[in-house]
Amino acid sequence: MILSLHHVSFLCSDLKASRAFYEGVLGLKVNSSRPALSFDGIWYDLAGNQQIHLMVLPNVEEGLKRPPHGGRDRHVALKVSDMQRLIARLDEAGISYSLSQSGRGALFCRDPDQNALEFIAD
Question: Which pTM value belongs to this model?
């Protein structure tokens, strides 16, 4: 039986730009204990032994038209402790986002490779 989510992986084309987003804007910390793979990438730790894995690999979906609202696209949903702080950091970085269309305390944005992320107020 499934116990929990261990990690989610995203393809990225520019690791420097992705790191600026995931570390600089979202404040995630690198997990340097992960083994090296045959391609470049990086792992980030989340609470509860969960991780985000960025993999530098060719994007097979390059040019795919994504819906404007990330909630209408495949995405990962992450709980945040301070939604107002996240909004301030996104605004400061010039990253566009949309609020949940259901009226919940949630917002959606995209990383530099157009991967959709949902953030839900804890």
Answer: 0.91
